[in-house]
């Protein structure tokens, strides 16, 4: 099985639970989504290769339905260490306030990519997606030989063309409305703020390449799923919508913040990781976002102890509260009930248009 043209081979509904690195996506959530007729995803980012393998084992024990695993691509060594050092000086007060130390920015930039690929080729899963770049043809061909469908996250038509040329089976087309990190293949600070909205991006990508698309970016309702399907997508990926589910591994602070009127809007910021990522506008973003350098994953490693300390103290103002633009539409449903609700809303919207 190596094509996404017939999504029913993977799930009853065209609903994908987006992989959310950092703990939100876990085997329990993915199993609940896949079991309800959607396609659950594990997020391997920020995990060791063994931790990824153990989560895959847990998920297989919990469901016999198809699922996916998301990998972060290794990042080029283009970060200016002096810029990261200056940012560290600015954050010294944050570390002191939360009673911790800043992290080591040179912890690593490849996210154990090669080891994770080796495990997934030796013990294949139905689907593997890639973020922050596109694998070379040899890797994608190896997954095709293993029977794994490959999906590359893209944010522009040019990235979609590169993924098609490399041999990807499908694309995750990510609009600027999406919560969490923008999955751009190259992090260029000069392009900050120039991201495309999802519907415009779907149309441009559809006219540029022949690959099936999973649409992602601010989707929270079945009517929106129907809209992106009508625009040419084969499925819709939702992340923020699943964050508040009881099966999600997101912290209680994060879940409450999504619908808390204190957090009126989201913003793309480099404050926590050095890469543009959409989250709720809190004190940390307001005070540090404008000064954060382009430095991923160095800034991520630098701020990690501060974020953990803030969470431990129950202070969401110092946490990375990733969220898409539709976060206020979050519903506290079980993952299975949410999948069924979204599917019913999607069908009703499509019938109304017929």
TrEMBL record:
- Please explain the role this protein plays, according to its UniProt record: Nitronate monooxygenase that uses molecular oxygen to catalyze the oxidative denitrification of alkyl nitronates. Acts on propionate 3-nitronate (P3N), the presumed physiological substrate. Probably functions in the detoxification of P3N, a metabolic poison produced by plants and fungi as a defense mechanism.
Which cofactor(s) does the record list? FMN
Against InterPro entries, the record matches this protein to: Aldolase_TIM, NMO
Q: Does the keyword Isomerase apply?
A: no
> Which keywords appear in this protein's UniProt record, sorted alphabetically?
Detoxification, Dioxygenase, Flavoprotein, FMN, Monooxygenase, Nucleotide-binding, Oxidoreductase
Q: Which Gene3D superfamilies match?
A: Aldolase class I
Q: Does the keyword Lyase apply?
A: no
Q: Which organism is it from?
A: Actinacidiphila reveromycinica
What family is this protein classified in?
A: Belongs to the nitronate monooxygenase family. NMO class I subfamily.
Name the domain of life this protein comes from: Bacteria
Q: Give the molecular function GO annotations.
A: dioxygenase activity; nitronate monooxygenase activity; nucleotide binding
> What Pfam family is a match for this entry?
NMO
SUPFAM superfamilies, per database record: Inosine monophosphate dehydrogenase (IMPDH) (SSF51412)
Q: Output this protein's name.
A: Probable nitronate monooxygenase
Its GO biological process annotations read: response to toxic substance
What catalytic activity does the UniProt entry give for this protein?
3 propionate 3-nitronate + 3 O2 + H2O = 3 3-oxopropanoate + 2 nitrate + nitrite + H2O2 + 3 H(+)
């Amino acid at each position: 099985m190596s094509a996404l043209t017939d999504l029913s081979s993977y799930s009853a509904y065209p609903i994908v639970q987006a992989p959310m690195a950092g703990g939100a996506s876990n085997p329990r959530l993915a199993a609940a989504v896949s079991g309800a007729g959607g396609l659950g995803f594990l997020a391997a980012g920020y995990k060791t290769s063994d931790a990824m393998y153990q989560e895959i084992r847990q998920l297989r024990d919990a469901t016999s339905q198809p699922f996916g695993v998301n990998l972060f691509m290794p990042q080029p060594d283009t970060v200016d260490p002096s810029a990261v050092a200056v940012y560290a000086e600015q954050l010294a007060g944050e570390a002191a306030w939360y009673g911790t130390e800043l992290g080591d920015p040179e912890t690593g930039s490849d996210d154990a990519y090669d080891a994770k690929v080796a495990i997934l080729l030796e013990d294949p899963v139905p689907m593997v997606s890639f973020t922050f770049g596109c694998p070379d043809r040899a890797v994608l061909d190896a997954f095709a030989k293993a029977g794994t469908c490959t999906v590359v996250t893209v944010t522009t038509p040019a990235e979609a063309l590169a993924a098609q040329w490399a041999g990807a089976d499908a694309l995750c087309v990510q609009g600027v409305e999406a919560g969490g990190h923008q999955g751009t293949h190259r992090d260029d600070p000069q392009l900050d703020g120039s991201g495309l909205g999802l519907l415009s991006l779907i149309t441009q990508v559809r006219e540029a390449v022949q690959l099936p698309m999973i649409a992602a970016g601010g989707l929270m309702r079945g009517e929106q799923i129907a809209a992106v399907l009508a625009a040419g997508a084969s499925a819709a990926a939702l992340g923020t919508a699943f964050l508040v589910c009881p099966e999600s591994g997101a912290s209680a602070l994060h879940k409450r913040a999504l619908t808390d009127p204190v957090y009126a809007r989201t913003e793309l910021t480099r404050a926590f990781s050095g890469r543009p990522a959409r989250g709720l506008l809190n004190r940390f973003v307001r005070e540090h976002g404008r000064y954060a350098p382009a430095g991923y994953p160095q800034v991520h490693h630098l701020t990690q102890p501060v974020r953990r300390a803030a969470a431990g103290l129950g202070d969401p103002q110092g946490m990375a509260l990733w969220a898409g633009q539709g976060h206020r539409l979050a519903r506290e449903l079980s993952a299975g009930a949410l999948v069924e609700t979204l599917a019913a809303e999607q069908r009703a919207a499509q019938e109304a248009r017929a």
